[in-house]
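Data availability (excerpt). The following record was deposited with the supplementary files.
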Amino acid sequence: MYLSGCSFNESMFTRMRLIFLTYLYLELVLLFFILLTLGFINNFSFHSPPSSSDEDLYQHLQSLNYAFRDSQVSPNSAAVVADGGVKKSHVATAAAHIWSHNAVVKELQVNSINVTALEAELMAIHTGLIPAMEIENIHDIIVITDSIAAGRKILESKVNPLQNMVIPLTSTIKSFFSKDGRNKIHFWYCPSKAEWSRHKLVDEQVKANTCIPTFPSKESHLFSQKKECDNILCEWQTSFANSLKKGHYFLNFEDKKQRVIKPTYAKGGSWLPVIGFTNSLCACFTCMTTGHAPIREYRQKFFPHLPTSCPCGEAEVQTREHIVTECDRHDPSTRLCNIIINSFVYFLMDNPGAFSFDNG
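Predicted structure:
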């Protein structure tokens, strides 16, 4: 028994050492290519608007127009317009157009399956950038994409699941920069919602693709991770919808597209990004949403002998619905006719005493 135990431990130790050495090797390989690229860090640039406001986006698109125009005038410049997307069938399409002298000189497209949107965007950049760097006498390349995050992955020095695309791309970029010190690559952000004409062409190509890859449908690491997270999130949302723990009076808000808001971990959660302006607003909104607000309907549960009517004299019971839709004690112009979460937040901001302890 002792000997078999030793054998088991030695086997496990050998396996763990092999995993560690493999991980270390991959990290060193990636670090080697990244360091080569970082030696040309000044040959890279990334351009994004300073904020998500319409004004900043407009100014950014104007700058993008100038940059694209300059790239088409110069005989030593080219532009790569790239976009990637993943359909509900998990089929991913990555497309890129290479522009030179105001014409598309190359249209490129690759398909994959069981990858994430980030991987599709990086595939699109990879698909267009490598052929662009192989064009003779090209010194400046602008890459126009709606995922700057994918472009920045090229300079990420830690081991990540995208290194199978990053390493060959980094190697080609290193050769491109080594060939001539004037060579540069500029990444420009262009959101799909802006409908910038050249990016819209690629976006429409990605959306119109109906090709389904026939090769074995292995899952990428990121896709498997996302699928597991999606399953957990779906289970959470289902249990939340069916749970009695949230209370019978919990108000199921809708978003701006009139869809019921479900709990999520992404982008700060479902409710906090909308209501987290101040602590008092957040507390007031929470009490109102759960039905624990200091109004007479709720007070009736503890003090049934006290009055339940609204002080405005128009309702026998001062309910949450009465306060936000018809109560004369609050600004009539702020009354609500829907359950969109933003509307409730604006109502509370305009009527700070509506669900506060001094409501009466």
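Summary of structural features: The chain has twelve helices and six strands.
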